[in-house]
Amino acid sequence: VRVFYRTLTRSRLTASQIQRHKASLPKNFSDYESIKHDFNPQIPEYFNFARDVMDKWAEKEKVGQRAATPALWWVNDRKQEIQWSFEELGFHSRKLANVLSGLCQLNMRDRLFLILPRIPEWWLVNIACLRTGTVLLPGTSQLTARDILHRLQTSGAKCIITDESIAPLVEDVASQCPSLQSKILVSNRNRDGWRNLGDLMNNVASDHECVETRSDDPMTIFFTSGTTGLPKMTQHSHCSYGIGLTVNGRYWLDLTDQDVLWNTSDTGWAKSAWSSVYAPWIQGACVFIHHMPRFDSSTVLTTLSSYPISTFCTAPTAYRMLVQEDVAKYKFKSLQHCLCAGEPINPEVMKKWREATGLDIYEGYGQTETVLVAATFKGMKIKPGSFGKASPAYDVQVVDDDGAVLPRGEEGNLAIRVKPLKPFSLFTEYTVVKAFVVLTPEYRSHDKEQLVKDLKTHVKKMTSPYKYPRKVEFVEQLPKTISGKIRRVELRKREWGQI
Ligand SMILES: *[C@@H]1O[C@H](CO)[C@@H](O)[C@H](O)[C@H]1NC(C)=O
Ligand SMILES: CC(=O)N[C@H]1CO[C@H](CO)[C@@H](O)[C@@H]1O
User: Fold this and answer.
1) CATH label, 16-394+422-431, candidates 3.40.50.1000, 1.20.1250.20, 3.40.50.12780, 1.20.58.1610
2) Percentage of the chain exceeding pLDDT 90
3) If 129 and its partner were Cys, which of 7, 118, 134, 394 is the partner (CB 3.0–4.6 Å)?
4) Around Cβ 129, how many Cβ atoms within 10 Å?
5) Is 76 exposed, middle or buried (0-12, 13-18, 19+ CB in 10 A)?
6) Per-residue pLDDT tens digits for 400-441
7) Closest Cα to residue 113, out of 138, 147, 149?
């Protein structure tokens, strides 16, 4: 019987067809409709990802209820390697949390600016900030001194953690950033004016009590790329990512605690939090990192064949480079699920990748302000040129410029419904200072543009530079209470109503 069965299977399906079929089946949900139907996340009043998710996985590790994969697996091109379990991540990040709340005197809601390449410390800072309730602002290593100045001033960050390549740029601008109190360097060497992270961590306790954060407390701030005007600060709460990215981790990435996820993206970009922190760790999966100085096709293919990477995501441009190599000569024994995001993928590249690996590429789309907005989920038919269907996190529609939903097949704007209820997995706000100004009679005839400039300069001089208003609006009068207090709520409502 066994022989017969084997022959039958072989004659009907090739090994790669079987592999492809298996890989296209979702592991932890049945189909798109069931996801849409069952999606009903509960938002507790208090939530902290370090305590409520990471430390829970550490407990499961202890009693053998989690697969034996590490939680973080880091390699570089000099064959150095680090593997940390959730327990070890907990140990190191608690020490770092003690550095932040002790020596750096960071209180809840204070802001920390982080610019590091893909080194393990980047992840430790992420987790330590959760433990202390510090709001994390990640930035890429490509920032200039001017960019750094703008970010430090706008955010009023009290602490910066970076490496030797960025330290001189910070030194150039630090005197113009009055709120910046601690500068911490990640390096084997010491540098004047900086404290060394390694030394600091050697001298603190490893027990730390995680702070109580409300689900809607601010957790992280990303600067938008600033395509139009100066970059804006986009704030996410503890639950918007910590719970909201379940949609990415469970449904799009289809991860479990046995999976190893590799996204080749750099740290600092808004969405490295998506794929390299929250989405995989919600699912208990392993985050794999290769600290390559730059994208190199043969390094990527060799890495995919020598480590048990089950889930792989890279940019469409990168896939285009990969399929130019002789991909079929590599054996990806563990690879089961491939994804892309960032720009549309060319159907030709998808086809070549499938021919070489037997695997499809699943597209996803989202923005700094959101979690996954739309995607091709496992088990869904892939239609080249389409990025799939709306994610269960949002009610997504194509609308015209007035917000009216358009009929099927018509081009328009992609919109997310925010009324009557704003989805919890949407960013909280953009934290822009706006001034409403009532002019006295002698100023009414003045040139308004010049007045705006003068006001901004005045505030910069009188208070900290970062506090100056980015927006100024002249009004006839301010809404006041009977006792004469200004009703800021009303101003705020008016402002949001306009957007
Ligand atoms: C990988 O990182 C890029 C850039 O940050 C992001 O656009 C993409 O969504 C990430 N992939 C996954 C699977 O989260
Ligand atoms: C690993 C994982 O995501 N497991 C989930 C699979 O789905 C069930 C039912 O929705 C969840 O309870 C598990 O947590």
Assistant:
1) 3.40.50.12780
2) 68
3) 134
4) 28
5) middle
6) 988 999 999 999 999 999 988 899 999 887 787 789 999 999
7) 138
Ligand 1 atom 10: residue of nearest CA: 275
Residue closest via CA to ligand 2's atom 6 equals: 28
Kindly write down the DSSP assignment for every residue of 194-229, as one continuous string.
-EEHHHHHHTS-S--PPP--BTTSEEEEEE---SSS
- Quick check: CB of 371 below 6 Å from ligand 1? no
Give the Cα separation of 378 and 231 in Å (integer): 35
User: Domain 434-495 classified CATH 3.30.300.30?
Assistant: yes
Nearest CA to ligand 2 atom 5: 28
Q: What is the pTM of this model?
A: 0.85
Give ligand 2 pocket residues (Cβ under 6 A): 28, 250, 256, 283
Query: What's the CA-to-centroid distance between 359 and ligand 2, angstroms?
Result: 24
> pLDDT tens across 129-178, in order?
999 999 999 998 888 999 899 899 989 999 999 999 999 999 999 999 99
Nearest bound ligand to the CA of residue 370? 1
| Nearest CA owner, ligand 2 atom 1 | 256
Q: How far is the CA of 44 from the centre of ligand 2 (A)?
A: 18
pLDDT given at position 361: 96
The two structure tokens encoding residue 215: 């689900």
